[in-house]
Amino acid sequence: MNSPPDMPVLVEFHAPFCMTCRKMMARFSKMSKKKRDAIFLSVNVKEHKSVASMYNVKDVPSFVLFRSGSLIAQYKGAISERELLKLIES
């Protein structure tokens, strides 16, 4: 993937058994189609436990924002589309 180094990267951590995660995945997917100046990634914590552990993700859904390779912010729980946008643009 070739993208500007300062492009925000938002990672969504979810689990298949989590109903809130399912709702958030739809919101996250919608946002990823709208917001072309950010990278959106989704991580299933059941399949990728080491990645979740690396970022100290203990609750799902959780969101981790990176910019220029640095962790900028973390958010736990359901989040509105507006709040997601604020998080990305922070």
UniProtKB/TrEMBL annotation:
Stored Gene3D superfamilies: Glutaredoxin
GO biological process, alphabetically ordered: cell redox homeostasis
Signal sequence range: none
InterPro entries attached to this UniProt entry: Thioredoxin-like_sf, Thioredoxin_domain
Pfam families reported for this sequence: Thioredoxin
Classification via CDD domains: TRX_family
Domain Thioredoxin: 1-90
PANTHER family: THIOREDOXIN, MITOCHONDRIAL
Family label: Belongs to the thioredoxin family.
Name of the protein this chain belongs to: Thioredoxin domain-containing protein
